[in-house]
Write a structure and sequence with these properties.
By secondary structure, the chain is of the alpha/beta class. Helices cover 27% and strands 18% of the residues. Strand 4, helix 2 and strand 5 (103-104) form a beta-alpha-beta unit. Helix 1 (46-68) crosses helix 2 and helix 4 packs across helix 5 (190-201). It is globular. Residues 232-240 and 287-306 have low confidence and may be disordered.
């Protein structure tokens, strides 16, 4: 039962946070209490809740057949906004008889630029499952963990490639005996979704800022598999080293074709909150001293807000 179809869903419009990069301190940008109490883990704004509900109206009928037949797998970033976006869809699929649980995978989680301080991670899966989302698999262990002090854009692409290599290879192996096709839905964030499109198709742009794969809030992207051949991967501890760079072949796991690129036809407000890369967004600022990237104006931010808001 190889994975044949992948849907990528960006989370809905969320509440925000503020970062003082001089102290490395994150604080919520509103007086609304965040469910997990983590400053970088806000819930959806009311508009985002509406987007998630509208998304379910499209996704539930689309996925019901696969759900009923046990051919659906759902993965998500563990940040609350991504899981909350999935909630109406998962609840609708549960009513349709889906027996599965959502697997929280940190490997497809949010991107934070390199910093001298540690960025807060999401809540643990078992805590989220016990207190908020009973359909989340509290026992699943993420295959990839992002570095606490952030990543460059190139490192993010490599992380997403490793995550999808492992997810797809694991699902192919998990279901090989059944001989049927699997559908995979992944809920995530703007930057990782752009990277996902690139590593799945094998497209490495000459400029990271190229607007090739889009990522509107609650936009839906669809990819279909070209081949079942999975690229060899090598395991070293908890991480995976890909034997060749992801761009040296035509997409991971045999390569994928993009059929839909952040479609928003199901949303009453259409395309909103599009985003693209614009430098590494690093925070190598300490005690008022800017690093070289900040001096050149390419990456580090001199204000107190998070870089180029990805709400």
């Amino acid at each position: 039962m190889p994975v044949k179809t992948i849907y990528l869903l960006r989370h809905g419009h969320r509440l925000g946070w503020i970062l003082d990069h001089r102290s490395g301190t994150y604080t919520p940008a509103s007086h609304v209490r965040f469910p997990t109490g983590i400053a970088t883990d806000p819930p959806l704004a009311s508009h985002g809740v509406k987007q998630a509900q509208e998304t379910a109206v499209r996704m539930v009928p689309l996925l019901t057949s696969a759900a009923e037949e046990g051919k659906l797998r759902i993965y998500s970033s563990l940040y609350y906004r991504c899981l909350e976006t999935l909630k109406p869809t998962v609840e609708g699929l549960k009513r349709a008889g889906w027996p599965g649980k959502v697997r929280g995978e940190r490997g497809v989680g949010e991107w934070f630029g390199q910093a001298w301080f540690s960025h807060p991670g999401p809540e643990k899966a078992n805590v989220l499952s016990e207190n908020f989302l009973p359909w989340l698999d509290g026992e699943y262990k993420s295959r990839i963990t992002p570095p606490e002090k952030g990543e460059t854009i190139e490192e993010l692409h490599d992380r997403i490639a490793r995550a999808f290599e492992q997810i797809i290879a694991g699902l192919d192996e998990e279901s090989a005996a059944n001989g049927e096709d699997l559908t995979l839905l992944v809920s995530g964030h703007a930057a990782p979704i752009i990277c996902s499109g690139r590593v799945l198709t094998g497209h490495k742009p000459s400029d990271w800022a190229e607007e090739d794969f889009r990522c509107f809030t609650c936009g839906i992207s669809k990819f279909t598999r070209r081949s079942e051949a999975v690229k060899d991967v090598r395991y070293e501890g908890a991480q995976t080293q890909i034997s060749e760079p992801w761009w040296s072949y035509e997409g991971i796991a045999g390569g994928w074709d993009c059929i839909e690129n952040s479609s928003c036809e199901h949303l009453s407000s259409g395309e909103e909150r599009g985003w693209h890369f614009n430098g590494d967004e690093s925070f190598n600022v300490h005690v008022g001293l800017l690093n070289e990237s900040a001096k050149s104006g390419q990456a580090a931010q001199s204000g107190s807000n998070a870089p180029r808001d990805r709400l």
